[in-house]
């Protein structure tokens, strides 16, 4: 999977695929999984970082779709760019 430099370079579908890859640990090594998680933290800029994945807040859907929803809402509320148009 090619990682992009900025959140806004992803379509929503591409980012959900990225989250699914992290969730399923669909990688060849632990180092590659760590790289994807670090990219998630860098790209989303969310203050909870990888905690969104590993320690979801009460009432948050514990799934890639749930994480996607939280990231989208937080970025919009904080004036951050959203996904690129498809």
Please give a structural write-up.
This protein has about 90 residues and is mostly helical. The protein has one domain: Non-ribosomal Peptide Synthetase Peptidyl Carrier Protein, Chain A (Orthogonal Bundle). It has four helices and no strands. The longest helix is centred in the middle third of the chain and has 15 residues. The radius of gyration is 12 Å and the shape is globular. It starts with 11 loop residues before the first helix and ends in a 9-residue tail after the last helix. The mean pLDDT is about 95.
Key structural traits:
86 residues, mainly alpha, Non-ribosomal Peptide Synthetase Peptidyl Carrier Protein, Chain A, 53% helix, globular
Structural topology:
Elements: H1 12-24, H2 30-44, H3 51-54, H4 64-77
Helix pairs in contact: 1-4
Helix content range: 40-55%
| Overall geometry | globular
What letter string, H or E per element, gives the SSE order? HHHH
What is the beta-strand fraction? under 5%
């Amino acid at each position: 999977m090619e990682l992009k430099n900025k959140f806004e370079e992803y379509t929503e579908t591409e980012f959900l695929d990225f989250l699914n890859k992290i969730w399923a640990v669909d990688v060849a090594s632990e180092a590659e999984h760590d790289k994807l998680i670090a990219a998630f933290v860098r790209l989303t800029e969310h203050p909870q970082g990888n905690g969104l994945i590993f320690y979801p807040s009460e009432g948050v859907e514990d799934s890639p779709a749930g994480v996607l929803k939280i990231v989208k809402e937080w970025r919009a509320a904080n004036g951050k760019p959203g996904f690129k148009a498809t």
